[in-house]
Sequence to fold (66 residues):
Amino acid sequence: MRYRYFRFLSAYLQKAFGAVVRTVLATLVFGTFVVGLLRFMGVPVPSAYEVLRSFEGLGKLAKILS
Fold:
């Protein structure tokens, strides 16, 4: 009985992990394509560092407002 539960849990976690990996990869590919297309069209796209700094600023703003 215990073995069956472990197999079920293992299969579920394996499928969930696979779905997460596929989602992350698809997001990276799609994001790279969109950023490349925007740069090709001449749209100014912020660097990854600038994007991370904006999230840091949102965290500081949230601390001030709370």
